[in-house]
């Protein structure tokens, strides 16, 4: 419900502005543009400068970058060289980290999407006295901070501590609640008549869900995928606890370790930050709307 | 279409017979819960319940010794651990309050007719998607007391900036400010969705009645975005009380223990091998988060129903 509302009302504001178009007096001009210009200037100082700083420092040579100055590189651009240097450090560990993070993100998000869609679907469609309890557990999953050492203890008992499959399951588990809320809200907007029609046509439960309902969840599925991939890719705490060790390092862990290692090589440190910012940036450029819809809808529900 | 809808057979159709209802129900099989349920129980519920027991032990993963409430006593008497407790409250409530204020202000600004609205929305939102560790490292450099861009810029205006992260009195606040910088985008988004959902008639009526911008905000926008406020407060409190990554990337709880929070204490005790104490920290965090979030969400939702 909330999801569709956000989406449909998103275009409403621009219409509102066009309605009250009056002749442009000086006062109106000031009100219309002055505030905007001030806001843009402030936003440049507060939000653009830090990102520009990352980019510029990543493009400098070692001596210049250690000055922490906000300026164009005076002694030539070294962006490409710095990227290559970062990738080559410690036997290409960051390349391995990128591969690890990609596997972790893709598999855990895939698990989340399928499992959460199944739960959201039955939870929304089937009225039973267990619903209250399940809703309670879903909310608890959002609020309760995971208990760290007991989780490690359980994982060790199962033999999945410090392994990629274990890490994947952890990320999937911690992300489930949020996904279930999004799916449940969206499935409520799909009329039950569709289910009935499919049943009359002879579909079984599995066919009904995977062939009829699941394809209709495309829009919310994309939202879930985008939001959760960014979350899992940027996660630092969980890999820190549950996936220690170099051979399985994720990009956030390598970045954090670089901090102490490259204490004097800020050009490499910032080149690394820049590299790690690229995947979310791509997500942002292609799926800005989806991310916005997902975060507001999930938030209002949660 | 109408002819189909008014087919006599359907119109007079009795409530579905029990057998059909049963069949409908079996179309939504309970075992769909199982895959998620197994993950949830094994990797989340069992550890959470186990944490209550292990928090009462001296524990090294190999042997467990029951010591009663000693861990909790340590937690509340050891000054450096207690500091973390206090800091968690400060950090959680400060970031939450600032996100509400800035988020609402920015949302009001960005739902009006303002130059460069799309650009502003994207710019404010983008930091949400950037790696917390990356943001932490960047601001650590920007907040450097001598060479950092912030203090150098302040020096141009003749202001001697504080040692943001090196001064124990400032460290926690500096990290909280960066947290707000990174997270205000979500708060703004939620408020924008809330403001856009307010029916336009209210604003028009206020205009006809001669209400100015402030009165409109005070008497229409503010009361009607309460659901959005509830969401922002709850989300930022849940995030703020549990927050670890940014603090760990910027100060590691330092200088001294001045910016330690419970989540960083948990990690430090875990690293030191005090698993029982670390788990006790987890239980304390669990109790604090639940004790704060549940009443607030109850309060905010009740007010919402009344209005």
Describe the structure in your own words.
The complex is a heterodimer of chains A (302) and B (307). Chain A contains 14 helices and no strands. With 302 residues, chain A is mainly α. In chain A, helix 5 runs parallel beside helix 14 and helix 13 runs antiparallel to helix 14. Chain A is flat and about 75 Å long. The N terminus of chain A is likely disordered. In chain B, helix 5 crosses helix 16, helix 6 crosses helix 15 and helix 13 runs antiparallel to helix 16. The longest helix of chain B has 33 residues. At the A-B interface, helix 1, helix 2, helix 3, helix 5 and helix 6 of A face helix 3, helix 4, helix 7, helix 8 and helix 10 of B.
What is the rounded Rg of chain B? 26 Å
Major β-sheet profile of chain A: none
Spans of chain A of at least 5 consecutive residues whose pLDDT stays below 50 are: 1-17
End-to-end CA span of chain A = 13 Å
Helical content of chain A stands at: over 70%
Shape of chain B: globular
Summing up helix and strand content along with how strands pair, one would put the structural category of chain B as mainly alpha
Distinct helical segment count of chain A: 14
Task: Report the total helices of chain B.
Answer: 16
What is the ordering of alpha helices and beta strands of chain A?
A: HHHHHHHHHHHHHH
Number of strands of chain B: 2
The amount of beta strand of chain B, in percent, is under 5%
Oligomeric status: heterodimer
Gross morphology of chain A = flat
């Amino acid at each position: 419900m909330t999801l569709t509302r956000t989406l449909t009302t998103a275009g409403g504001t621009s219409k509102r502005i066009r309605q009250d178009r009056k002749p442009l007096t000086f006062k109106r001009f000031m009100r219309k543009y002055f505030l905007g210009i001030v806001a843009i200037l402030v936003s440049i100082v507060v939000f653009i400068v830090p990102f520009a700083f990352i980019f510029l420092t990543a493009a400098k040579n070692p001596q210049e970058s250690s000055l922490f100055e906000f300026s164009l590189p005076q002694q030539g651009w070294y962006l490409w060289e710095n990227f290559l240097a970062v990738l080559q450090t410690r036997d290409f560990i960051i390349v391995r980290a990128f591969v690890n993070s990609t596997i972790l993100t893709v598999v855990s998000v895939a698990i989340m999407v399928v499992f959460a869609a199944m739960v959201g679907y039955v939870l929304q469609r089937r009225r039973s006295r267990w619903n209250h309890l399940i809703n309670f557990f879903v909310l608890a999953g959002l609020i309760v901070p995971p208990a760290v050492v007991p989780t490690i203890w359980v994982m060790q008992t199962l033999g999945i501590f410090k392994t990629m499959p274990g890490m994947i399951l952890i990320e999937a588990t911690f992300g489930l609640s949020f996904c279930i809320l999004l799916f449940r809200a969206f499935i409520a907007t799909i009329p039950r008549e569709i289910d009935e029609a499919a049943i009359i046509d002879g579909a079984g439960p599995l066919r009904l869900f995977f062939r009829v309902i699941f394809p209709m969840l495309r829009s919310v599925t994309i939202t879930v995928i985008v939001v959760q991939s960014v979350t899992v890719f940027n996660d630092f705490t969980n890999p820190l606890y549950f996936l220690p060790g170099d051979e399985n390092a994720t990009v956030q862990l390598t970045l954090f370790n670089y901090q102490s290692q490259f204490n004097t090589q800020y050009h490499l440190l910032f080149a690394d930050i820049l590299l790690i910012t690229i995947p979310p940036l791509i997500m942002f450029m292609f799926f800005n709307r989806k991310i916005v819809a997902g975060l507001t809808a999930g938030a209002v529900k949660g | 279409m109408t002819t189909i809808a008014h087919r006599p057979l359907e119109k007079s159709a009795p409530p579905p017979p029990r057998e059909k209802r049963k069949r409908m129900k079996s179309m939504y099989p309970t075992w769909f819960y199982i895959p998620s349920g197994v993950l949830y129980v094994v990797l989340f519920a069992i550890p959470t319940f186990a944490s209550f027991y292990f928090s009462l032990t001296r524990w090294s993963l190999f042997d467990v010794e029951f010591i009663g409430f000693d861990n909790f006593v340590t937690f509340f008497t050891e000054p450096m651990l207690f500091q973390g407790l206090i800091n968690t409250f400060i950090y959680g409530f400060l970031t939450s309050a600032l996100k509400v204020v800035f988020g609402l202000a920015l949302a009001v600004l960005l739902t009006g007719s303002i130059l460069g609205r799309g650009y502003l929305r994207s710019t404010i939102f983008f930091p949400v998607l950037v790696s917390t560790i990356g943001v932490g490292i960047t601001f650590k450099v920007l907040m450097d007391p001598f060479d950092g861009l912030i203090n150098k810029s302040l020096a141009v205006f003749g202001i001697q900036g504080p040692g943001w992260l090196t001064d124990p009195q400032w460290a926690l606040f500096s990290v909280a400010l960066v947290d707000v910088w990174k997270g205000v985008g979500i708060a703004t988004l939620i408020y924008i969705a809330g403001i856009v959902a307010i029916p336009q008639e209210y604003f028009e009526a206020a205009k006809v009645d001669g209400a100015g911008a402030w009165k409109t905000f005070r008497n229409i926008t503010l009361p009607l975005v309460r659901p959005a406020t509830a969401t922002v407060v709850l989300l930022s409190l849940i995030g703020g009380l549990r927050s670890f990554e940014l603090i760990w990337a910027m100060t590691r709880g330092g200088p001294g223990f001045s910016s330690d929070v419970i989540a960083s204490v948990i990690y430090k005790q875990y690293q030191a091998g005090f698993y029982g104490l670390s788990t006790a920290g987890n239980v304390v965090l669990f109790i604090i988060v639940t004790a704060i979030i549940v009443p607030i969400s109850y309060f905010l939702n009740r007010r919402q129903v009344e209005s």
